[in-house]
Amino acid sequence: MEEQLLRPKGNKFLAGTTTPVVLSICVVMCGSLAYGFAVGYSSPAQSGIMADLGLSIADYSTFGAILTLGGTIGALVSGTIADMVGRRVSAWWLDIGRFLMGIGAGILLYVAPIYIAEISPKSIRGGCTAAIAFMVYFGFSVMFLIGNILTWRTLAIVAIIPSLVQLIGIFFIPESPRWLAKIGRDKEVEASLQYLRGKNVDISLEAAEIKENVESLQQLSGSRYLDMFNRRYAHSLIVGAGVLILVQSGGTDAISSFAGSIFKKAGCSVSFATTAMGFIQLPFAAMGVFLLDATGRRSVASAGTCLGNFLVGVGFLCKDYDQMSQLSARLVGTGILVFSIFYSMGVGGAAITIVSEIFPMNIKGSAGSLAIVCNWFTSWIVTYAFNFLFEWSPSGVFFMFTLFSGLMIPFVAKIVPETKGRTLEEIQASMTLLN
């Protein structure tokens, strides 16, 4: 039966994992795969595109960063679209060009984790949301692996496939019951929830909690865009925007987009290093899907990304000394791999999950949009500036990334709450000042 649980009821971790939930998550993750393809595309394609089209470093930096600029524009409207038309249809913007891919990703990478968080049982919500990040890494890794074999034109054609799959699959998944409650479609709330949880599951308590939460939030201000700056939402806003700004300032998109040129500058074998980077991320990203619900969201993996950046910085310092050139290449290669392991295992998935959980329904669109705009704008600055800073001082730019990665540790320890094992309504109520 479609509603039948995929695993025995005795398995607490997978309790409530029904076929509709899995199907919905898989369709949404196709968009994350498409984004992973887009991010991973620019590194293996760099030499071919620059040679065939005669592009300068400045030209290619613009090409690499334009994805994030499109993402910023998409993020500006992501909350409005999510609130107006629901959580399913936003992914249709993923079809045309790198800039439009950026716009689509800006919408999808906020709407998708919200949708998954709103349909998943609390026992597996973290892992389901982190699966989005896993698919980004998977797409990124695939591009790195096959980018050594295919031409940049063929690579672009391959990258279209997940968007087409999602375009079809979007018609076969249900709407979020929490969004339905927000717009007053109470009967459809129960129908959607029953479909997601299974025909024989009692959904009355969960449905009542969702409706009660929405009704209480409607009594608060929150219909205007600027209402998210009300003092009662300050904690949520600081956490959401702060986590994403620090993650991007740690260099993740710059490293992903220009890994090939980093390895080349260090004297590493580019094909070997990018292949190793592609392979090594996947098992650790898969591990992160399970760790997020097992150990919680307040991951210490940011210490690992800090260490990775530091090793790369030291490696490029060693490159100034001829007798240390081999050590330099090893340190840079090791540092990039350490960064990739810890980012894929914890930092990326945890950041996406936290942002999808903390905002109450009445400001979820506006506050979520602002957080994602901060993410994409920071990414655009870092990605565009990276090649220029890298030419100026390879070690300096990675020590700068080390600083921001290190700042994540006290920020998480002092400000970010643990959301593991709590319903969205419990999390949001604990972070909202009612006085």
From TrEMBL:
Can you say what this protein is called? Major facilitator superfamily (MFS) profile domain-containing protein
Topology relative to the membrane: Multi-pass membrane protein
One GO cellular component term of this record is: membrane
**One MF term from GO for this chain?**
sugar transmembrane transporter activity
Q: One Pfam annotation, family name? A: Sugar_tr
User: Where is the protein situated, by its record's location annotation?
Assistant: Membrane
Major facilitator superfamily (MFS) profile domain ranges (all copies): 1-420
Instruction: Return the CDD domains for the record.
Output: MFS_GLUT6_8_Class3_like
Which residue spans traverse the membrane?
20-41, 53-76, 96-116, 128-146, 152-173, 233-250, 270-292, 299-317, 329-355, 367-390, 396-416
Q: Chief subcellular site?
A: membrane
